[in-house]
């Protein structure tokens, strides 16, 4: 069987167990010889930078929690093998019940999803930064010429990954623009 017969399906899993389910399905393929019926198995992720205590922490977050995307030809025993994997709830499909016929994804959905995965893995510019600060919050500058000063956040610019804050210097409010990594919560 060739790849033209395989279609993309969405498998609903226990949330938080997507990578385990992927591993179990891969083991099922190796152990029971479903190499021709099951192709790629994807758990779409997005890369996120969080800033904690002035340090960047890179982490990966599942883009579609509770779902695994599988390229497969679901004729014969392959569908039963996937359904019997621990952590698999059901295939997304028409009708009610866990034994409904799986419905493959539309081509537009597959192209959009695969393009998103490719873009996330190739570019670091699209990495999301989780902003742990809020306007009006009092913070401490930990880097740069104003290190050690306390200030109040007045504006957050997520695009530039900078904050505008007011720092008291000699009894006067002085506006500063600093990177997220140059400050920390008090």
Automatic annotation (TrEMBL):
Domain KOW, chain residue ranges per copy: 132-159
A Pfam family cross-referenced in the UniProt record is: NusG
Gene Ontology biological-process annotations: DNA-templated transcription elongation; DNA-templated transcription termination; regulation of DNA-templated transcription elongation; transcription antitermination
Which InterPro entries does the UniProt record give?
Answer: KOW, NGN, NGN-like_dom, NGN_dom_sf, NusG-like, Rib_uL2_dom2, Transcrpt_antiterm_NusG, Translation_prot_SH3-like_sf
Q: Which keywords appear in this protein's UniProt record, sorted alphabetically?
A: Ribonucleoprotein, Ribosomal protein, Transcription, Transcription antitermination, Transcription regulation, Transcription termination
* The keyword Protein biosynthesis is assigned to this record: no
Q: What does this protein do?
A: Participates in transcription elongation, termination and antitermination.
HAMAP family per record: NusG
What's this protein's name?
Transcription termination/antitermination protein NusG
Organism of derivation: Blattabacterium sp.
What phylogenetic lineage does the species belong to? Bacteria, Pseudomonadati, Bacteroidota, Flavobacteriia, Flavobacteriales
């Amino acid at each position: 069987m060739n790849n033209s017969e395989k279609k993309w399906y969405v498998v609903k899993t226990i949330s938080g167990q997507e990578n385990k389910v992927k591993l179990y399905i891969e083991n099922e393929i190796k152990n029971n010889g479903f190499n021709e019926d099951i192709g790629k198995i994807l758990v779409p992720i997005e890369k996120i930078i969080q800033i904690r205590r002035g340090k960047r922490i890179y982490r990966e977050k599942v883009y579609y929690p509770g779902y695994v995307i599988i390229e497969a030809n679901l004729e014969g025993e392959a569908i039963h093998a996937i359904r019997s994997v621990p952590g698999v709830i059901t295939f997304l499909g028409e009708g009610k019940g866990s034994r409904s016929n799986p419905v493959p994804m539309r081509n537009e959905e597959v192209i959009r999803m695969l393009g998103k995965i490719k873009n996330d893995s190739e570019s670091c510019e699209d990495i999301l930064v989780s902003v742990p600060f809020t306007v009006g919050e009092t913070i401490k500058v930990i880097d740069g010429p104003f290190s050690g000063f306390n200030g109040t956040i007045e504006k957050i610019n997520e695009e530039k990954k900078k904050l505008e804050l007011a720092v008291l210097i000699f009894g006067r409010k002085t506006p500063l623009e600093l990177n997220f990594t140059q400050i920390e919560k008090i």
